[in-house]
Amino acid sequence: MRYTFLSLLLACQLLSAQTEEELLKHFHSITANEVFAYAKTLSEPEYDGRLAGSPGYTKSAEWVTAHLKKWEIQPGYGNSYFKHFPQDYTTVKSAGRLSATLIDIKGNAIEKKYSFPEHYYPGSNSASGQVEAEVVYVGYGITAPKHQYDDYKNVDVSGKIVMIETRHPKLKNASEWNDWVDYAGSSIKLSNAVKHGALGVLYISKLASPGMKYHKELIYCHIDEKLAEELFFARQLNYKKVKEELKEKNKPQSISLKHVVSIAADTEYHPDGSYANVIGIIPGSDPKLKDEVIMVGAHLDGQGNLGELFPGALDNASGVADIMAAARALSNLPAPKRTIAFFFIGAEEKGLLGALEYANDPLFLKDKTVCYINLDMVGNGAGLYFGGGQSFPDIFTHFEKANEQYIHRPLKTNYLNRAYKGRPRTDGMALSQHGFRALSVHCTDRVKKLYYHHPADTPETLVPEIMEDVSKWLYLGLYSLANAESIDLNEKLKAE
């Protein structure tokens, strides 16, 4: 084992002065218990799901920075680890209620009551109160004059509840996300429903979604596709067929379903909340290289509490915990040549807001940022994935060799997909679209069941052993990269 680790030191150029013994000591100090404990703490009710804007999020950010301070990792913003931004939020006091009076084609009425979380989630930013009205299916819920497309054409939704799909049409002249960005966002769809006089929305996507904007006159919830199927079936209509026609024909398929639906929400809106991005740094020591920065980050916020806690253990206490353990171990080593920055991002679940704020006003110059490595949901799996490694092999090689020599996990990588035109789904993608060299770390070969934006996303669904190895991998790879004599940052393109 000693020979193997010494080979790693030589191959990765980890250090000249640092002894193998000390490097190995701090490597082994990272344990599954440590990493799991960080994730478990962040998932506790004390932090109330870490909703950006809320006191629970602020408390979680303070908990992280207390550790950074204890480890003598320097604050990124002068004397502070924080950069604050205003952010409204909504407290959901209970799961609310959802029921329906189904009217079949013969006019018979059937009373139905639905349950959380099986059938629906309350809207994270719903207005408080109750609405009871006829439900109208309006497809994508889009009005886009630019593309001569309108799901509300020839249907009256005034005073009614509309049922809306996610996504957008794929018209030949307007197929990419950028063509629809002004019309297809979930918040825009809610605004469009209000504009057309709707009083409520059934959004066909049973996910906690804090990024949807608050409208004081609109009550909404998220429903499972099976519930949508039931509403259609009661009218002897085939929901899957209608949805497929909506997708294939790219023409509105809106229809009044005649059922009367009741949505009740118990919420309190807070317009004056705030959140913070958190950055801690280990400054570089080399006079020529210290201004070059390697950033590693994970979003700290979660989905909050929808009348039941959404712990957000995998998404994304896991990524935060992985970085924290690596940061603690790195803080014990002599300063690397380049600066290493640990970025705990706020308001990802609100629409990548923290990453976008950083992109617009970065702490470190873009041309001095060697790369940003994003961790999101890195706590369930048996293998490792380094997104974008083939595009930047001079970066990837440090992580590849560390894994080959000491971690011994299956490792995959790929080229960055520069042709991707869809909506950015991660902080890394948001930064990439703003010109940063953004890479990512994931797990492969899932070991436990995934609960995405679900109250069952608890610490029990995490795999501590993979989290330990991710942290150790980061520890080795980041330190090796930060001490490299030179780094070729010319992007390698995938051969067609």
From TrEMBL:
InterPro entries on file: M28_fam, PA_dom_sf, Peptidase_M28
Domain Peptidase M28: 277-471
Highest taxon above the source species: Bacteria
Pfam families, sorted: Peptidase_M28
PANTHER family, alphabetized: METALLOPEPTIDASE M28 FAMILY MEMBER (PTHR12147), PEPTIDASE M28 DOMAIN-CONTAINING PROTEIN (PTHR12147:SF26)
Protein name: M28 family peptidase
Gene source species: Carboxylicivirga marina
